[in-house]
Amino acid sequence: MSTQNTLTCESQLVDKLRWRYATKKFDSNKKIKSEVWNQIEEALLLTPSSFGLQPWTFVVVTNPELKSKLPQFSWNQQQPQECSHLVVFARPDKIDEAYVANYIERIAEVRGVSADSLSTYKKMMTDFVKGATEEKLAEWMSRQCYIALGNLMTVAAAVGLDACPMEGFSSPDYDRILGLTEKGLRSVVVCPLGYRAEDDKYAQAAKVRFPKEKVILHI
Amino acid sequence: MSTQNTLTCESQLVDKLRWRYATKKFDSNKKIKSEVWNQIEEALLLTPSSFGLQPWTFVVVTNPELKSKLPQFSWNQQQPQECSHLVVFARPDKIDEAYVANYIERIAEVRGVSADSLSTYKKMMTDFVKGATEEKLAEWMSRQCYIALGNLMTVAAAVGLDACPMEGFSSPDYDRILGLTEKGLRSVVVCPLGYRAEDDKYAQAAKVRFPKEKVILHI
């Protein structure tokens, strides 16, 4: 991998991070093409997580009828309806020994090793899920979902997709409307994606960040 | 922004997300050049956050003496010492009305508007920080740090930097050693960055993810 190429790619990426903004109004007529969306899904799938446990399901909502029910449970924000694709980051209701065992099976399958050879790793993870309260584990899983959110927003900007991360929604109502409860899932955070409307005035607003020297500390 | 270009860039990005892995052993002789590192800092600074409040400080540790003290408080993992640059994601001890007021001043400064014109936005954020418990706000701030972690790992991969996200460290000890406590900061998660050692056998291991059809749900 040549440093020159990657530096160039990275400069582009920083430019794209400057280009992105929390989109307030999507053009509901513009849909994301499948070849673009497939790359987004690949990137989501590759998100790193603690222990590699991937305590998440990425729920992609494109059904217009379902989407139309969401603004009233999103502080009346219209983006979940007007966007092309809505990603709901959901965590499992709980994470337990069985989940860890299933993950170990998956490692054994992908790497062509025996599950027995992974016993030390398995014990470490099992001790982790047995040693923490349900509330603590729920929060730990939610944090992992935020890694995926960060990854998604960067990759979306890289392909020129607009996005709007949203914490302002009713998780129980989303879970009910989207049928997540019966699947043992809980919505954590959501991100509508698509293309900005031409008249979204927020697209023109200067990006606000604290001064670099206050945010980054060198020691 | 041409779709063709961005698709190509994105394909590269997905390849780079496949290339990355949680680096167990860094080559301590290889240092990240400043022109590469500057891009990383720009990307960190541009991380999106809820309300745009940026409840974080990114602590970049390169001092060898400080780094040498960290493995013993990191489950004996050597990456914080052997890496080139260690990023400690720290949140403010607390977030309050004064923090919000300071942010409003910053918006007014960057956008050239009066602070008074932002009173509705200010009230919304003030209500948010006054309406939640200290514990809830601490967790909310920590989640924002995980967005930055996700962004960092993706951007690092894009420039060919190796990284290892780590939750396994003693936050109070890091805060003491790095002098964060007296600055009103609390370490949340850390990420050593640099270049993989040639003999890090984990670099060759197949990447393990659950099957796409189990992780991504279309509705």
Walk me through the structure.
The structure is a homodimer of 219-residue chains. Chain A is α+β, with helices and mostly antiparallel strands. Chain A is built from 9 helices and 5 strands. Chain A has a 4-stranded antiparallel beta sheet, with helices on both faces. In chain A, helix 5 packs antiparallel against helix 6 (119-131). The two termini of chain A are 30 Å apart. At the A-B interface, helix 1, helix 2, strand 1, helix 5 and helix 7 of A face helix 1, helix 2, strand 1, helix 5 and helix 7 of B. Strand 5 of chain A pairs parallel with strand 1 of chain B.
Topology:
The structure is a homodimer of 219-residue chains.
Chain A: H1 3-19, H2 34-45, E1 57-61, H3 64-68, H4 79-82, E2 85-92, H5 97-111, H6 119-131, H7 134-158, E3 162-163, H8 171-177, E4 185-194, H9 212-215, E5 216-218
Antiparallel strand pairs in A: 1-2, 2-4, 3-4
Helix pairs in contact in A: 5-6
Quick gist of this model?
With 219 residues, chain A is of the alpha+beta class. The first copy, chain A, has helices at residues 3-19, 34-45, 64-68, 79-82, 97-111, 119-131, 134-158, 171-177, 212-215, and strands at 57-61, 85-92, 162-163, 185-194, 216-218. Strand 5 (216-218) of chain A pairs parallel with strand 1 of chain B, so a sheet runs across the interface.
User: What is the CATH-assigned architecture of chain A?
Assistant: 3-Layer(aba) Sandwich
Shape annotation of chain A: globular
- The CATH class assignment of chain A is Alpha Beta
Distance between the termini of chain A: 30 Å
Structural class of chain A: alpha+beta
Mean of residue pLDDT values of chain A? 95
Question: Helicity of chain A, in percent?
Answer: 40-55%
Assembly level: homodimer
Task: List the strand order in the largest sheet of chain A.
Answer: 1-2-4-3
Strand-and-helix sequence of chain A, N→C? Answer: HHEHHEHHHEHEHE
Low-confidence stretches of chain A: 1-7
**Sheet with most strands of chain A:** 4 strands, antiparallel
The value of Rg of chain A in angstroms is 20 Å
Name the CATH superfamily assignment of chain A: NADH Oxidase
Number of contiguous helices of chain A = 9
